[in-house]
Design goal:
Elements (H helix, E strand, L loop, with lengths): L1 H11 L2 H18 L1 H20 L2 H6 L4
Amino acid sequence: MFHAASKILFFNFQPSSLAVIAIAAGLILARADRRSGLRLIAIGFAWIVLAGFLPLGNALVLPLE
């Protein structure tokens, strides 16, 4: 039980998943409140672009080595 719950929670709280969740929430929120929905969409896309093009993974792993 704990193993399955930890896998589900880990999948939902990964940075890439949080960016996709932010985009999805922004799309839903854009129907009700356009400004805050568009902000969430922009934040999600910016996170995906920055995490994809910048060497953030290497910078985070270097202090651990």
